[in-house]
């Protein structure tokens, strides 16, 4: 029997393992295939695909797309796309523009709440070149303000996203 997981997150967004570590973990738990579906990001797919090949696993490109539809936030799991296709590249560039465009404002919002934060302090927590809310989250976790991560999202990042209107401009 083949077991697959088509909804896996890495450190690129809100997961616990790097894309490479995910492939090793997938092998350890007996999966025959997996899809990396980080939130609005494909930065880890290449690393995960290469590590999956090394582990003898099948891999499927993925991403969990956040979209605003009729005033509701949707999470759409996208699978098996050609990340190099011009139409996908155009859509993905817009997704990243929206997601990365307000990072300075989010940092200012969190700073105004009394947290010692700056763009320079957050930058080392970016995964590769991706400076987004998850880099801010990783920085906040490093401050040990709470014993779990969810209150950080609830008290700082989610209100910032709502107040700055970040999810209202997402393409569907």
Give a brief rundown of this model.
With 172 residues, the protein is α/β, with parallel strands linked by helices.
Question: Could you describe the 3D structure shown?
Answer:
The radius of gyration is 17 Å and the shape is globular. β4 and β5 (72-79) form a beta hairpin. It has 7 helices and 5 strands. 30% of the residues are buried. α1 runs parallel beside α2 (45-55) and α4 crosses α7. The chain has 2 domains: 4-83, TIM Barrel (Alpha-Beta Barrel), CATH 3.20.20.140; 100-169. Helices cover 44% and strands 16% of the residues. Mean pLDDT is 90; it is low at 168-172. The longest helix has 16 residues, at 86-101. It has 172 residues and is an alpha/beta fold. The protein has helices spanning 19-28, 45-55, 86-101, 103-112, 119-122, 133-142, 150-164; strands spanning 4-8, 33-36, 58-60, 62-69, 72-79. The strands form 2 sheets. It has a 3-stranded parallel β-sheet, covered by helices on one side. Strands 4-5 form a two-stranded antiparallel sheet.
């Amino acid at each position: 029997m083949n077991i697959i997981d088509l909804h896996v997150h890495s450190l690129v967004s809100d997961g616990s393992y790097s894309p490479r570590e995910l492939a090793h973990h997938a092998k350890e738990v007996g999966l025959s295939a997996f899809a990396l579906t980080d939130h609005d990001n494909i930065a880890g797919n290449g690393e995960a695909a290469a590590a999956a090949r090394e582990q003898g696993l099948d891999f499927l490109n993925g991403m969990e797309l956040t979209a605003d539809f009729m005033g509701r936030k949707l999470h759409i799991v996208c699978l098996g796309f050609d990340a190099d296709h011009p139409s996908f590249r155009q859509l993905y560039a817009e997704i990243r523009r929206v997601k990365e465009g307000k990072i300075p404002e989010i940092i200012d919002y969190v700073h105004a709440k009394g947290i010692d934060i700056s763009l320079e302090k957050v930058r080392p927590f970016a995964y590769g070149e991706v400076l987004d809310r998850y880099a801010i989250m990783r920085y906040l976790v490093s401050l040990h303000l709470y014993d779990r991560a969810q209150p950080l999202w609830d008290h700082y990042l989610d209100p910032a996203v709502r107040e700055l209107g970040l999810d209202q401009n997402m393409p569907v």
